[in-house]
Write a structure and sequence with these properties.
single chain; 293 residues; alpha/beta; Aminopeptidase; seven-stranded mixed beta sheet; two-stranded parallel sheet; 9 helices; globular
């Protein structure tokens, strides 16, 4: 008989998300940091099959710290503080693997999504090292609480930041910030490791002038690819609405540039990489101020 995992999270004890520099934006940019959270509910940690260090393999470490100086210069930013392995806000709300639950509703629709099938849907079944997070089946109602208490508040606040930016500037570029493991960056190109990747939904997420400016600016120092190995996920797809003057762009940063991946610690280049990224983001902001004139 399959083990049933039952627990209830006290969400009043969680610092779920954080908003930065939202009062007087200087540029028509919003920064989204969905995968850098390191906090987990105690009730969750007590009912899983791996330790917290293993869960960290699923996160984008320190991305908020890499770009915070750009935000401090006048760019609103939102960061999810909860670890991605608990719930992934960069997934569609329907990207659920029904086989993870002992009471998944028979009337509920099933989305045949690749990320869900491999265990990295809205609720992660495995870690990035392919270890099972749970040793049994979850309560579907508990999963719905994760959606209502974490997923929806993140997206409500993100939409509010976008709306406020549009009211001030007439348009908004949502820059969704991530990291990528170096082992992927090494196998994608034979001659040189990928250092940064811009995701544009295959050149559909924003006007070409925007991503080309950012691409060329970053290529002054780094090997930057477009849409390879990542073209974008739910956030830049969901919020991309050109007719409403909402544009999106995803940036992926090779973790080996700024981190010792084996121990999840910043390396000696961290501040150098941070300065380069923040300067490039500010330059993009100044470009955007002239873009709609």
């Amino acid at each position: 008989m399959e083990n049933k995992i039952n627990f209830k999270v006290n969400y009043s004890q969680l610092n779920i998300l954080r908003e930065y520099n939202n009062r007087e934006p200087r540029y028509p940019i919003v920064l989204s940091i969905p995968h850098s959270g390191q906090n987990f509910p105690d009730e969750f940690l007590a009912n899983i099959a791996v330790d917290i260090s293993e869960l960290r393999s699923n996160e984008d470490p320190y991305i908020d710290e890499l770009v915070i100086e750009a935000s401090n210069y006048g760019i609103p930013m939102i960061k999810l503080n909860i670890g991605r392995a608990f719930i992934d806000v960069n997934r569609d709300i329907l990207e659920i693997d029904p086989t993870m639950f002992y009471n998944y509703p028979k009337t509920q629709s099933i989305t045949n999504n690749k990320r869900s099938r491999v265990g990295l849907g809205l609720f992660h079944r495995i870690t990035a090292n392919r270890k099972n997070i749970y040793n049994g089946l979850l309560d579907y109602q508990e999963a719905q609480e994760r959606i209502n208490r974490i997923y929806k508040p993140y997206h409500i606040l993100l939409k509010d930041l976008i709306d406020r930016t549009i009211r001030k500037f007439g348009f908004c570029l949502l820059l969704d910030c991530h990291s990528m493991p170096s082992k992927i960056c090494n196998i994608m190109q034979d001659n040189r490791q990928i250092e940064l990747c811009l995701g544009t939904l295959f050149e559909q997420s924003c006007p070409s002038e925007i991503y080309e400016f950012f691409l060329q600016r970053l290529q002054q120092k780094y090997n930057v690819t477009l849409d390879c190995p990542y073209s974008g996920a739910h956030i830049i797809f969901h919020y991309c609405q050109p007719r409403k003057n909402i544009y999106t762009l995803q940036i992926e940063i090779n973790r080996s540039l700024y981190e010792d991946e084996a121990v999840y610690k910043k390396n000696s280049n961290f501040q150098y990489i941070s300065s380069d990224l923040c300067e490039a983001i500010i330059d993009l902001g100044n470009f955007l101020l002239d873009f709609k004139k």
